[in-house]
């Protein structure tokens, strides 16, 4: 038996003022996207914004459905729309934020496992995706989706490079 460990490096900030202009812009677009969220059941409005290699920003918001789990998370809405609309333009960064009761959440909101796997597939095909998780009291920046999900499904030849 071998004992192993995983170390995840990320940056944590206490103010958006500490971030680059591009990172602040992406967070702002994610926050705007929460306004288009359809969350009549959870009342938890999530917004995501992806920056593409061309500089284009695409937003997405969570879309709930009474036939749970038929809805879709903001991250996948943004990523799938970006790839559908701009298939040759890779995702370079993603920002996620959430609003509850009309107020942005203090702490970062993390993508679910399904979103992490989808984002990992994009990352495996196209290169690293910076992930910015923004709350009002702290913002976490990860250099890669892999930091959020180090053990991903990749045992079929369609994903492996």
Relevant terms:
alpha+beta, 161 residues, globular, 3 helices, seven-stranded mixed sheet
Structure description:
The chain is α+β, with helices and mostly antiparallel strands and 161 residues long. Helices cover 24% and strands 24% of the residues. The protein is built from three helices and seven strands, in the order βαββαββαββ. Strands 1, 2, 3, 4, 5, 6 and 7 form a seven-stranded mixed β-sheet that branches. A hairpin with a 4-residue loop joins β6 and β7. It starts with 10 loop residues before the first strand and ends in a 19-residue tail after the last strand.
Question: Helices, strands, pairings?
Answer:
Blueprint: E1 11-13, H1 21-33, E2 44-52, E3 57-61, H2 74-85, E4 91-100, E5 103-104, H3 113-126, E6 130-134, E7 139-142
Parallel strand pairs: 4-6
Antiparallel strand pairs: 1-7, 2-3, 2-4, 4-5, 6-7
Would you summarize the structure shown here?
With 161 residues, the chain is an alpha+beta fold. The chain has helices at residues 21-33, 74-85, 113-126; strands at 11-13, 44-52, 57-61, 91-100, 103-104, 130-134, 139-142.
Structural class: alpha+beta
Strand content: 15-25%
Question: What is the element string, with H for helices and E for strands?
Answer: EHEEHEEHEE
Largest sheet: 7 strands, mixed
Per the principal axes of the C-alpha atoms, what is the gross shape? globular
Kindly state the number of beta strands. 7
Separation of the first and last Cα atoms? 29 Å
Radius of gyration: 16 Å
Low-confidence stretches: none
Number of helices: 3
Helicity level, as a percent range? 10-25%
Mean pLDDT: 93
